[in-house]
Amino acid sequence: LPILNLAGPITGLVIQPLIGAASDRTWSPRWGRRRPFITVGAILCSIILFAFPFVGILWLGVVCFWLLDAGNNTSMEPYRAFISDRLPRSQLARGFLTQSMFTGAGAVLANLSLFILQKVPALEKTAGNGVPYWMYVCFMIGTVCILVTVLTAMARTKELTPSDEELEEMRSAPKGLGGFVTEIKDAVRTMPVAM
C-alpha cells in the first residue's frame, strides 16, 4: 500500500512537466493548444473510472489507479495553463482559486455520494467480485461528471490564438522528448526560490 500511495506524487512528477512542456509547444487552429490534452486526460479518467469497479485482481487495480492518476495529471496541468492563457494577470489568483474551489467541491460531492449511496437498500448487495453495487453507482456518477463537465468546458471555451512571436517560438523549440526534458531542466534551474 505505501508503494501504491506513491502513484500520485511519482506520476505527477513525471507526467505534469512533460505534458505541460508538450502543451506549451502545441497549436492547432482547430483544436487549440491545451484542449486536446485536457480532453484526452478526461476521457482516460472516465474510461478508467468506469472500469475500476469491475476489476477483481489486485495488480490490475494498481494499474488502473496509476492510469487514473496519469489521466488526471494529463488533464489538470494543461487546465492550469489554460486558465493562465485565458485570464488577465489581475484575475489569475481568482481563476486558480475558483478552479481549486470546484475541484474541492467535486471531492466533497464524491465523498458525500459514497456516504449516501451506502444507505440505499437496493444497492446494499454485493457483486461477484466482492464490490457492493453502491460502489458501482459511485464510479458511474464520477464517470458521467468528468465527461459532462470537462467536455462542456472544452466545447464552450475557445482558446486564444497565440501571437506570431509565440508561434515562432513554438516552431523553433527543440522537438521530441529530449527537447521537453531540456525545457524542464531549464525551468527548474530558473525557478524562483519560493517555488
Helix content estimate? over 70%
Mean pLDDT: 84
Q: Roughly what fraction of the amino acids lie in strands?
A: under 5%
Give the structural class. Answer: mainly alpha
Based on CA atoms alone, the radius of gyration comes out at 19 Å
List key phrases describing it.
195 residues, mainly alpha, 0% strand, 8 helices, 73% helix
Task: Give an account of the 3D structure.
- The structure is a single chain.
- With 195 residues, the protein is mostly helical.
- The chain contains eight helices and no strands.
- It has helices spanning 2-5, 7-24, 35-51, 58-86, 92-117, 133-156, 164-172, 176-190.
- Helix 2 runs parallel beside helix 4, helix 3 (35-51) runs antiparallel to helix 4 and helix 3 runs antiparallel to helix 6.
- The relative contact order is 0.13.
- The model has no long low-confidence stretch (mean pLDDT 84).
